[in-house]
Structure prediction request, 313 residues.
Amino acid sequence: MRIILLLCLAFMLASCGETENDGTLQGYVEGRQLNLAPRSVGIITALNVREGDVVEKGAVLFSVDSERAQAQLDQAIAANAAAEAQLLNLQKGGRPEEIRAAEETLREAQASYKLAEQTYSRTKNLVERGVLSTARLDQDRANLDATSARVTEAQSRLEIIQLPARPDVIEAAGRDVEARKSSIVRAETELRERSIIAPAAGRIEMVYRRVGEISGPSAPVLALLPPEQKRIRFFVPEPMLSQVAHGGRVIIGCDNCDAGMGGEIVFISGKAEFTPPVIFSEKDRAKLVYLVEARPDQPEKFLNGQPVDVTLQ
Prediction:
């Protein structure tokens, strides 16, 4: 019985010693890693990093198959070239071959008219002299009128061929060209997104999938942890809660770390942990702790999950 009393006394003294510590709190490092995945489903064809690698922003991390995206881009470029040629054709009018043919028709009609005009003049002169009848003059007059009409028709056809298309037709063709260009941009974006680049500098924490496996928007390939996404998480007892505030400073220590490293408090939880079940007596309040997060000044000095000591300033 005496031994039991001595053990209880020793335990109570140890507990008192823990409550009267130097204010150092226990915590750990937590990283908000970025799970990177392609926007569309594909087979991984290249994986350029390994777990633990440190990469720079913009580095190509992995790629998925791009044959279909390349084919779509080629198709969009070809369709745009055809649409631009059609627009140019509408703006310039008829083709050179058509214009030359219309010009030849006009020259033939003009030659026929000139011949009919000369024939009519000779017939008129002979009729006036009484050599020919007026019936022949009427016939030559009709032929002259017919050739004149053919000249007018050929001239009008040449002018129509040389004119560009109607404004509404040209406008529609222009809109089609713009749509084709948008398709090219979309196809280029799709092809570019088949190679995933690092959105920020950081460390590769985990590789989930390898070359040859299928990945997609809901199946990330790897996890990247930027240094600025690291947080120091620690729990503050309820009696010490008044000592913490947003923007407050803390001193961070760890095994074999540089002395004097600090951080800034960026989050204080509004919910207590390990809450006693019923009444918050003074003794029970000592059991309440609140989660606090601090952003370290030198995040590159810490590893994800590393235990640390935190001292409030």
